[in-house]
What we know:
Layout: E1 2-8, H1 12-24, E2 31-34, H2 39-45, H3 51-59, E3 62-67, H4 84-93, E4 97-103, H5 116-119, E5 123-129, E6 141-144, E7 154-157, H6 164-179, E8 184-189, H7 195-208, E9 215-220, H8 221-230, E10 237-240, H9 242-255, E11 263-267, E12 273-277, H10 294-306, H11 311-326, E13 329-330, E14 340-341, H12 344-356
Parallel strand pairs: 1-2, 1-3, 3-12, 5-10, 8-9, 8-10, 13-14
Antiparallel strand pairs: 4-5, 4-11, 6-7, 11-12
Helix pairs in contact: 1-10, 1-12, 6-7, 8-9, 10-11, 11-12
The structure holds nicotinamide-adenine-dinucleotide (NAD).
Nicotinamide-adenine-dinucleotide binds near residues 11, 67, 68, 259 and 333.
Amino acid sequence: MKIAILPGDGIGPEIVAQAVKVLNALDERFELETAPVGGAGYEAAGHPLPEATLALAKAADAVLFGAVGDWKYDTLDRPLRPEQAILGLRKNLGLFANLRPAILYPELAGASTLKPEVVSGLDILIIRELTGDIYFGQPRGVRECPDGPFKGQREGFDTMRYAEGEIRRIAHVAFQAAQKRGKRLTSVDKANVLETFQFWKDIVTDVHKEYPDVALDHMYVDNAAMQLVRAPKKFDVIVTGNMFGDILSDAAAMLTGSIGMLPSASLDANNKGLYEPSHGSAPDIAGKGIANPLATILSAAMMLRYSLGRAEQADRIENAVKAVLAQGLRTPDIFEEGTTKVGTEQMGDAVVAALAK
Ligand code: NAD
């Protein structure tokens, strides 16, 4: 099993180093090969996604990704900016399904901005379609407004579209994920206003016929946003399009208190995937040794489960993370009175020690 390790920028190398330590502490050895990406790719090879890095990602069985981006690259032309590496990897590897679990460990209930009784024990999975929707639809741009009261002025426009096959494949991923969990799926749309999402709803309803053991309901995105902060524990699995998923998954992330705890997976049609923490490169804390590595360590666990077929090893890592939280160890982002503050390295070491027990 070969894993491409792409640490990236900012806190990326610090947190990925902890996940690598954890992978190396498992019973099974994996072949790990590291390559630069993002700003580091630009520095090393003049491009955020160097050819050799892309070739490694394609050849590997899975990719473990840190984070990319730094303010110092903001003046580069858009195709050379670090964030383009993520879009390039998604496109080249055909990663169309983004899985983001939002789990609130009981020990961290106080870290959420919501009341503990609303979020304690939260365990939901948001599945976001990643390669379609208004983010990629053509045509787009700025043109002369052709009609209406603003005729003749400049207008910005984008195109929302989803092909039937795109909706079917993400629906299958979602129904299958729901089968492995609480067997409830909520499809989020805006069918009352958007043709694209009436079509989405019709296709998801049709795919449901193949999964009679899963209970499906449909919810408008505005209501879903409200329910996520009102009664988030009512959800099991949520599936939605690229733009709605972008927004809802960040809202769900904050239910758990810290973005430093949240892993993610982006999968292709064969369950090959790229695994990364849900947060960015956090340039404000890079190099200080205080970043929370748990989202990255939990991403490595997801990688073992979804792409490498090693569910037992994934369970071991997840249990080790629960154990260090139960011991009261906290990086500053999740620190509370009465717990023990530790740095990035110490947190990684504690997970390794808990694995050994
Ligand atoms: P960010 O997620 O990097 O940081 C937001 C806040 O959360 C910061 O205060 C940061 O210190 C904190 N934070 C993030 N991860 C943390 C961790 N593991 N432990 C403790 N605290 C943590 O978002 P941002 O500041 O908006 O963006 C910074 C850079 O990251 C930008 O260049 C942006 O483009 C990039 N970015 C990259 C990705 C990615 O690589 N997938 C995703 C989002 C943003």
